[in-house]
Design the sequence.
């Protein structure tokens, strides 16, 4: 009797500790909580609920959109389950989680930023006029977590469980120990093993029932059918990780039960099930038990009618377990046919002496259980994170590569482009968003101080400490003279109001404010949640001012601030939410996430007047860095020529240069910087350098990685 009690207590502890660990991790870990909730957005019931919320907020800000509400709802519904919205929601959920637990349960609003950007993009293709009416700066309050006793209780529970986190695993291990003790102390160990296996299967089924139990919870909590469906969808996503334990317990239980049954010929569970079915089918003779029989069958029928799919799923699982049990039992019997029934050391149950067949059976069972657990661990390693990352920079193969193992298409002087009104001597045809859309994933940019004027920006040369030699080196003698002439004509410049501008050498030759342009990069990242970018800044301003510009633009939300040794993988950056790695050429200290470029990068020379002059000799950064910058353009200052880009940006020229430099320097090019990145084959060549197919397409998240 004592052995049975130990086994039962072990099973109870295994069940309770598993539930406790899952709830604790899923509720109190900001990352896990956000991932589970974001996963629930793929459920059509959850997406329908959130789409209604988004539409309500849009119409509240733009009442004239009431007439097209069905169109907005439909668009938002399709948007909510998309990767961009999940990424945005995940960030918002993490912030709300931290706010809730830091404020000891005070009121917290769960608002999702960037909804306007996403809805506008979704509508743009089918109704540009309507898309233009959607405000970009729109935050949707999806849920409100009020100040309540429940909230305070949850916060208190988190603090307690954080202090006794060891207790959860301790209870789990204690449950396993008690179950084993119950088997060893039982007079008939084969029968005890059989019961332990069945008990583990029962525990697995009870854990599996937690998920469909969400229907009952949703039914009791709200009468709104849309909210009820959303609640069940969220419940299902939240408890879905329990299935890992369900498979482990059920698999272990079936293996143990089949092993014990193969050694215990008198026990036939199928005959027991048939006998149980016959007993259940016949109403008891006495009045009291008959009444219970009636109520039980009525309740069972009601459950089947109310949740037929769940009942069928449970029945299918039980049937599947029985089939696996039968197969494993015969496997054990077949493998043990040639093993002697007993050893010379004693009979069954004589102290700790075991028959040889029993020992062999248990060894086989242990091996199968080990395989089961290894399989589960491998599955968890691939799919344990509920956030689905299908590709990184356009290819699944790149996800688990480190930054130094990936090549990025790069735009040299990316801020210099023909889309900026009044920009002289552009290096590219389109601005940042267009370059990114065309496949560029590394932007080489210059930031200067400037004073705003009526028509042009005046460079703060004194503030930058710029010399004539440096300026001529940047824009050439002709560009320098042109800038000086413009500078002499500038009037009405407010030199008391200095700002940060994207310029090349002289802001007089073309400039625009840093913050709005960074916001354009941010919006592109919102729409492309599986893309990683490199930014290399030729900086003439302080690190603190760069950091403030990133904060003001909202781009800071996407900056990688994690460890750099070893280099992070693309997958780890995407999961961390930091998908932009930022370097500065000056290497000035002060901001941790602004990394000194030439402590990390080696590079090639950058002044070549003909393709024949291309070389891979060391330049800035020496030969110590683990990243490699290949400069690949023809110098024709002040005006870069698209005709030169058409020659040196071809696939064959790019690949020959990349292979030569990789062979000569012993490093894979981290990026190849080109002018006019939309001309030629930088995207296609980079895909080849990454070992991918050479048929890369342009645009969105598919290009040039």
Sequence:
């Amino acid at each position: 009797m004592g052995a049975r009690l130990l086994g039962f207590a072990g099973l109870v502890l295994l069940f309770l500790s598993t539930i406790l660990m899952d709830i604790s991790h899923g509720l109190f870990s900001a990352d896990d909580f956000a991932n589970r909730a974001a996963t629930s957005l793929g459920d059509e019931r959850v997406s329908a609920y959130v789409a209604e919320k988004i539409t309500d907020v849009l119409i509240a800000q733009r009442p004239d959109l009431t007439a097209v509400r069905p169109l907005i709802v439909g668009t938002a519904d399709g948007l909510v389950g998309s990767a961009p919205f999940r990424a945005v929601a995940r960030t918002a959920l993490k912030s709300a989680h931290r706010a809730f637990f830091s404020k000891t349960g005070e009121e917290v609003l769960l608002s999702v930023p960037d909804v306007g950007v996403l809805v506008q993009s979704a509508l743009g293709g089918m109704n540009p006029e309507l898309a233009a009416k959607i405000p970009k700066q729109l935050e949707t309050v999806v849920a409100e977590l009020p100040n309540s006793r429940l909230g305070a209780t949850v916060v208190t529970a988190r603090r307690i469980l954080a202090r006794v986190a060891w207790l959860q695993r301790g209870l789990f291990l204690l449950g396993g120990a008690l179950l084993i003790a119950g088997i060893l102390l039982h007079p008939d160990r084969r029968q005890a093993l059989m019961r332990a296996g069945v008990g583990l299967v029962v525990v697995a089924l009870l854990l599996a029932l937690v998920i469909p139990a969400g229907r009952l919870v949703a039914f009791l909590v709200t009468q709104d059918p849309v909210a009820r469906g959303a609640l069940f969808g969220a419940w299902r996503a939240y408890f879905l990780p329990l299935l890992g334990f369900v498979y482990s317990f059920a698999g272990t239980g079936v293996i143990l039960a089949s092993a014990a049954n193969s050694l215990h010929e008198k026990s036939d569970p199928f005959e027991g099930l048939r006998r149980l079915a016959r007993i259940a089918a016949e109403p008891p003779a006495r009045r009291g038990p008959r009444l219970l029989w009636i109520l039980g069958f009525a309740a069972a029928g009601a459950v089947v009618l109310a949740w037929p799919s769940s009942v069928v799923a449970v029945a299918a699982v039980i049937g599947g377990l029985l089939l696996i049990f039968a197969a494993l039992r015969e496997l054990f019997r077949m493998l043990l046919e040639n093993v002697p029934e007993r050893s010379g050391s004693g009979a069954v149950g004589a102290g700790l002496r075991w028959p040889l067949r029993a020992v062999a059976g248990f060894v086989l069972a242990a091996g199968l259980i080990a395989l089961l657990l290894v399989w589960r661990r491998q599955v968890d390693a691939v799919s344990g994170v509920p956030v689905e990352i299908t590709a990184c920079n356009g290819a699944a193969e790149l996800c688990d590569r480190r930054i130094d193992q990936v090549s990025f298409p790069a735009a040299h002087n990316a801020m210099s482009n023909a889309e900026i009104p009044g920009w002289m001597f552009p290096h590219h045809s389109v601005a940042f968003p267009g370059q990114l859309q065309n496949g560029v994933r590394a932007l080489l940019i210059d930031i200067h101080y400037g004073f705003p004027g009526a028509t042009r920006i005046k460079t703060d040369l004194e503030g930058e400490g710029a010399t004539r030699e440096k300026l001529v080196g940047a824009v050439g003698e002709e560009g320098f003279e042109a800038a000086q002439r413009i500078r002499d004509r500038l009037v009405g410049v407010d030199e008391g109001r200095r700002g940060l501008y994207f310029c090349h050498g002289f802001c007089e030759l073309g400039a625009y404010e840093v913050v709005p342009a960074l916001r354009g990069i941010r919006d592109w990242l919102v729409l492309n949640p599986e893309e990683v970018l490199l930014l290399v800044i030729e900086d003439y301003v302080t690190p603190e001012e760069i950091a403030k510009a990133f904060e003001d633009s909202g781009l800071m939300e996407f900056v990688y601030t994690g460890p750099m040794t070893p280099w992070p993988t693309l997958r780890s950056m995407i999961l961390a939410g930091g998908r932009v790695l930022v370097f500065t050429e000056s290497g000035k200290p002060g901001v941790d996430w602004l990394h000194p470029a030439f402590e990390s990068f080696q590079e090639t020379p950058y002044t070549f007047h003909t393709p024949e002059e291309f070389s891979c000799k060391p330049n800035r950064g020496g030969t110590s860095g683990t990243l490699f910058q290949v400069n690949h353009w023809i110098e024709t200052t002040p005006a870069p020529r698209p005709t030169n880009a058409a020659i040196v940006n071809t696939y064959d020229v790019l690949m020959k240069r990349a292979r030569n430099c990789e062979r000569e320097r012993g490093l894979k090019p981290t990026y190849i910087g080109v002018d006019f990145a939309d001309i030629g084959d930088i995207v296609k060549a980079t895909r080849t350098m990454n070992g991918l197919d050479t048929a890369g397409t342009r645009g969105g998240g598919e290009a040039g990685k």
The chain has three domains: 1-186, 187-383, 396-702.
